[in-house]
Amino acid sequence: MLLQIVSALGVVVGAVIVCSAYFFFSNMILDLALPVRDGDIRQASRNLNRRAMIRPWLFLGPALFLLVVYLVYPVVATFVLSFYDRAGLQFVGLANYKWAIGDREFRQSIFNNILWLAVVPAACTFFGLVIAVMTDRIWWGNIAKSIVFMPMAISFVGASVIWKFIYEYRGGNDVQIGLLNAIVQLFGGTPEVWISVPFWNNFFLMVILIWIQTGFAMVILSAALRGIPEETIEAAVIDGANGWQIFWRIMVPQVWGTIAVVWTTITILVLKVFDIVLTMTNGQWQTMVLANLMFNWLFRGGGDSGRSAVIAIIIMLAVTPIMVWNVRRANRELKGH
Amino acid sequence: MTAAGSYFKIGPARLFVHLAVLLIVIVWLIPTLGIFVSALRDKDQIVVSGWWTSFVGSTQTVAVRLGTPDQQKQEGAIYVISGNVLEGQGGRAVKAFGNRVQQPAAFKAGETADLGDGETLQINSDGSYRYMKGTAFSPDERPRRIYVSVSAPPEFTVQNYHTVLTGEGIGQSFINSLTVTIPATIIPILIAAFAAYALSWMEFPGRALLIALVVGLIVVPLQMSLIPLLRLYNEIGTMLGQPSKTYPGIWLAHTAFGMPLAIFLLRAYIAGLPREIIESARVDGASDFEIFTRIVLPLSFPALASFAIFQFLWVWNDLLVAMVFLGTDKDHLVLTGSLNALLGSRGGNWEILTASAFVTIVVPLLVFFGLQRYLVRGLLAGSVKGG
Question: Chain centroid to CA B243: how far?
């Protein structure tokens, strides 16, 4: 055990040193290769210019390399692979796409994904907003916020274990040790195996993500709410608006932009949701979603890169509008500077 | 007090807010609490009672044997065997007892039970008993078996942690997780900070395009990258005669996947640093490398810290990247991976699952509560600006 820890530490330190060394030495070499000495002024100024041309690419080099190899190239490669057979060798045209449309499991996944997209971002944003408004008004609000925010730190797998325990079912006349069934029993209901009830089990899985992500929405919306000028709310109060009206007519419209950001961020997250479904049901009982279906096809029976590529492309298509919107927004901001 | 605050101050409305928030806090806290409490309970108790009952103690029925006839004493006309059924079990108390397994709680503690054949038995709540008979107990009589329902006080143990840390591979996974996470947190920050500086303060053609590229890549789903990268890793692995699933491989993957957001967040911060500082340093003859390491890096500490926390949580909690690029064999399994494996293999053993889950979430929770302020700042820098 100790040996492992020591070797792990060594590897960790080594990795960081190698990375730092790149920047240090690449810049040093550039300065040595294009010296700026007092002697020849023309030479010196030409070298200075060259340095200024090359140095940005030294700074950007590793980042660009990673972005291209790990994100840009895969997008293209996956697109190409989606037209090839399972081993990625034979061109099959649209066959994989045709398969997808005809596949029952695929349609199930699309349906479930839409369900997730309809429920989770809306629920997180709504709860986040409501909790932000309420906690801003009480003295122990920050403690409450920390607690709601806490699940952000917990892994999806950890959260799944936590909730699986809540949904735990004991058959027959055994005492229920899952909280949900215990409550159901307390009120005279019949305990159920919640995660295997078709259709509704999707919602039991969504609860986990909502539990995790509401804190995120809350923190960001809370900051946006603080940005609302005092006067507008004051004026509304003087005009006799009640709490409900202040919330819907004054607060919500003013933080509309932030709501959109939060909504989109969670939407992207939902499209990638994988861990929760894997650990809770592994897609059984009609809970399959695209990300898990793709993972399954990636490794099922030695893997089918064509079919999994199609599913990846579908996920990509779903985020493309968000991507375009993001880039446009960023461009607008840059020009505004 | 703000204007809106004073509005909510009015009686019932304000009380309602307090109660509603309290309810929310309880709902948000209870799931995690269930895991924490259960992980500290005895494994036999986890399966017979809900964790929420563990604070009030539990009642269990145990079978005990009374003393043997050679312990009997004559008291006047009756013969008595006495002793204590709770011998050596401090803190417990007898609630009830019975002589038949079908009715283990037929008599209350302190009552005198008529067992037939002229025998009576009295058990007090402290466990002391008197077993009485009008005639002498015959020496070849077997010690009598009775059932006692014993209430135990709340009882907690760290045995489960000991089990998972030594026996279930969780200890090894903990080290693996650290080995993955630390470089995968530091390297992207370093690389992204250099890139962010170049994109903020250096003039070169194609800058605007690169910024747009970075922003666009923020939302590219990870799933897109899996297939081509797996192939690439396999090819490189074969070429070098090395296994394709290595730590450097996963560090680079995590670094790359965190890169767009890192550059985006850090660029926003670094571009916002005061122009005068950087330009005056430049006039004094400092090179960009010097400006970056001596001025920008120290000034950017808050942004670096907030992204570091993010990346740390993200990498520590990741399952997908680790499963694909590091594999699922025992030597490389990270914590999330082994927890997922345990769910499959030890699905009903809640003492194992809860303790393991706690081990996986304790580090991120410590980081989270220790550095929450930076984390929130980082979140806000990225999402609200211009929203």
Answer: 32
What share of chain B in percent tops pLDDT 70? 94
Q: Using CB atoms within 10 Å of the CB of residue B219, give its burial: 0 to 12 exposed, 13 to 18 middle, 19+ buried.
A: buried
Please write the tens of the pLDDT for every residue from B311-362: 999 999 999 899 888 888 878 889 999 888 888 887 778 888 888 889 899 9
As a whole number of angstroms, the longest Cα–Cα distance in chain B is 113
Whether residue B2 lies within 8 A of chain A, CB to CB, comes out as yes
Nearest by CB to residue B8, choosing from A243, A329, A330, is A243
* Chain A nearest-CA residue for B309: A153
B197 and A258 within 8 Å at the Cβ level: the answer is no
pTM: 0.83
Q: Report whether pLDDT(B387) > 50.
A: no
**Cα end-to-end span (Å), chain A:** 54
pLDDT (0 to 100) of residue B255:
93
Contact between residue B149 and residue B60 where contact means Cβ atoms under 8 Å apart? yes
Name residues 60-119 of chain B within 8 A of A (Cβ): none
Residue A12 reports pLDDT greater than 50: yes
Write the residue in A157, A165, A265 that is nearest to B383 by C-beta: A265
ipTM of the complex: 0.87
Residues 278-317 of A with CB under 8 A from B: 278-279, 291, 294-295, 298, 305, 308-309, 311-313, 315-316
Looking at residue A336, what is its pLDDT?
61
Structure tokens that stand for A238 in this block: 């003087």
A88 pLDDT more than 50: yes
Residue-wise DSSP of B285-349: T--HHHIIIIIIHHHTHHHHHHHHHHHHHHHHH--HHHHHHT-SSTTT--HHHHHHHHHHHSTT-
- DSSP states along B79-106: EEEEEETTTT-TT-EEEEEESBTTBTTS
Task: Kindly determine whether residue B179 and residue A8, on different chains, have CB atoms separated by under 8 Å.
Answer: yes
CB A228: neighbour CB atoms within 10 A? 16
Residue whose C-alpha is closest to residue B144's, from B218, B207, B219, B63 = B63
How far is Cα A323 from Cα A319, in angstroms, rounded to an integer?
6
Instruction: Give the separation between CA A72 and CA A88, rounded to whole angstroms.
Output: 19
Chain B residues with CB inside 8 Å of A77's CB? 227-228, 231
> Nearest chain B Cα to A138, which residue?
B18
Question: Which candidate, B43, B20, B13, places its Cα nearest to that of B348?
Answer: B43
Tokens of B150: 């014993």
